[in-house]
Amino acid sequence: MRSVLQAEKGNEVIEDRDPQMAPGAPGRRSPTQRSKTLISGPSQASERRWRTILATFSVAAILVHIVVRYFLHFSGLAADASLFLILIFGGVPLVWELATKAVRGEFGSDLLAGISIVTAALEREYLVAAIVVLMLSGGAALEAFASRRASSVLNALAKRMPQIAHRKQANGMTDVKLDGLRVGDLAVIYPHEVCPADGIVVEGQGRMNEAYLTGEPFELDKTPGSTVISGALNGETALTVRVEKLSVDSRYARIMRVMEETQQRRPKMRRLGDQLGAWYTPLALGIAASAWLFSGESHRFLAVLVIATPCPLLIAIPVAVIGAISLSARRGIIVKNPAILEQIDSCRTAIFDKTGTLTYGQPSLTEIACNPGFEENAVLGLAASLERYSKHPLALAILEASKKEGLPLETATQISEPPGQGLTGLVSGVKVQITGRKHVEERSLVLPAYRAGLECLVFLDNQFAALLRFRDAPRRDGRTFVKHLSPRHNFDRILLVSGDRDEEARYLADEVGIREVFAGKSPEEKVQIVRDESLRQKTLFVGDGINDAPAMQAASVGVGFGQSSDIMAEAADAVVLESSLGKVDELIHIGRRMRRIALQSAIGGMALSILGMIAAALGFLPAIGGAIAQEAIDLVAVLNAVRVAMPFRNLRDF
Q1: pLDDT tens-digit profile of 348-376?
Q2: Is 0.90 surpassed by the pTM of this model?
Q3: Which of 316, 314, 342 is nearest to 110 (CA)?
Q4: For residue 566, what are the domain limits?
Q5: Residue 543 has pLDDT above 80, yes or no
Q6: How many structural domains compose the chain?
Q7: CA 339 to chain CA mean position, Å
């Protein structure tokens, strides 16, 4: 039983599938180095920052031009100097970027804007060109504050790791770089420092916080023999640890590699504006080319393109997205990836983690079935004295039951908890072992009949003492939430993916009404399941711990519960601060409404633009008039998009 739950909560060993990271391979790098490598070079955040500056500069340059030309009555180079600066430092990079995308076959909604800039410059309509630069950079500036960097998860992971370790030698203490630690070295971890490597405590007693990995708010007691994991935060006392793994082989580093691989393989979402621009751009170019061909006047080509510039796509849609982000925040939902607001309502497969997502993640001890000759309180006291050193999710339930009975806790020694093998140690001279059924099958013991639920076996001096049963209650609204997903939100499939054993996973699935169950899965296996499902149709993954982070990255939309893990919160596209399935439903409704209003603004604005294009093609609308008309269309589209931020009824429908 314990091995299954360890897989659920993060104590399994994640297989390293990166050939460059294989033992003995050249060029192996630490987790921090790999993260720095991934995030080096121009980032998305830098690009958005540049576009924000460009939008501000464009507004200033256009205002300067208007003042110099129409109020100071200058003309020629003096009047157009500020516009030239915009075109050189803003227009040229934008056009080059769009041209590069076009060569790669990426034709987005902003391609028309790039063509308009070039055409306006050739026609010496510099004010028109500057206005288009403003339009093009404005949408990116509006959405900049809400977008996240693709490398944010790895940054969050890398920031936890120390840069140096304190190696203990016969002649004293030496500070070495993290990569300088070797297996067998003794490392001293000072109070409040982060553990630099996986190892075993050989000297000192204290506590460590490993919540970043397990997702559970545990501070674990550490004594000689206790295992420690890289990234854990030390408590008030210094500990001496014998290093068991190199930094590149630690559990922490392996999770980072899974995260990196998942980020790199995640398919890029096609944004709503690009989908609409795919047919709008050829239409506008066709009208503009026809106007030039039949009239023989090149300025008509420019006039059509200027009013065709898809600002309802470039500005109105980001405004709608920002409104949805604002409304979500007021409802306790933090949207970290704005693109998912356009995608969540079109997800057709829902995938749920079990513990802490469909359950409360707080198992309680419900029964102690003692073997003849053993007393409940004696067994419970010894078990709790050992479990105080464990990170296992059932440990807290045993400790809580012991506390209710007022049982004193004794000091344990010779503690051992190999992944998947259970927990052993000496308590007051008694050998205590806590494990699951599958690890004692060869002993031919007569055990109590299995019942659905969580359980573990307690052995005292190799004698079977008791079976402890637990229950992690399903969320009260779990069944009604799951039941409403298909009829209300058009989900075709609903999956439960868990590291727990098959019987327990299926018991919960029956309780909440899920038919498809994948049990006993490691985080890496969860990722593969999500990837396979995402190839068929868009997926929504809901989880609550760091072990769910790679799966969240692999899904079309990843939603994280609570604030138990910074890494999970960074990996999720949206974080529900209150662990509630109702908040997930609210997010789906907010995304659905945002998409509907964004489509209204975009399609309505494009329809008005098409009318303007026809007028420009017939010679009734010059280029500068087209730019002014386009701004009026933008205003209407944006005002409609602002409605997304307003609260509305029926945020939940179950």
Answers
A1: 999 999 888 898 878 889 899 999 999 99
A2: no
A3: 314
A4: 333-360+475-577
A5: yes
A6: 4
A7: 12
